Amino acid sequence: MASKLGDKSFHSVGGYYINSGLALYQDLSSGNGKEIETGKTLLNMLKIDNALITLDALHAQPETLEAIISRKADYVVQVKGNQKHLYQAIQEQFSKAHASNVETASFTTTNKGHGLEEVRTTFQIPSFVANEELYKKWPSIQTIIAVERHRKIKSKTTIDTRGLH
Length: 165
What we know:
single chain; six-stranded mixed beta sheet; 165 residues; 4 helices; alpha+beta
C-alpha cells in the first residue's frame, strides 16, 4: 500500500489471516522500492508451513517464491510487466492451450450492484515447460491462472485479463 501525506510517501507491507480477519503484521518500508525486503522479513517472522500465501506483482521474485516453497507453503502471485519474460510466457501458454483446445479448468462469477455489472472467469492450466530458461528461473510454478474480467458501468464495458501463477 502506498499513500501520500503532503510531499512524503510511505509504503507498508502487511500480513493477514483471512479466516479470522486478523492482521498479523504491518510495517512501513524504509522507502520506495524497499517493500520486497520488508515482505521477506514478514515471511521470516511468520509460521507459514501448509499455508497459502497470496502476493501482489511486486513480490513475483524468484528468491521470494523459493523462500515460501522452502518453508513448506504454497503461493499465488500476480504477474505483470515487472516480470516481462514470465508474463509473456504465461500469455503464450494460454494462447497455445486455447489454440490446441486443451481442456481448461474454469470458474465464472457474476456480481451486480450500484450500477456495476462484473463477470469474472478464472482459467487454470498446468505450468509451462516449453521455455527451459524460464523454467530454470521459476521451477516452483505448478499451475497458471488467468482472470478475465468484464465490467459494465452504465453503457461502457471494459475487459481485462490478469495472469497469476
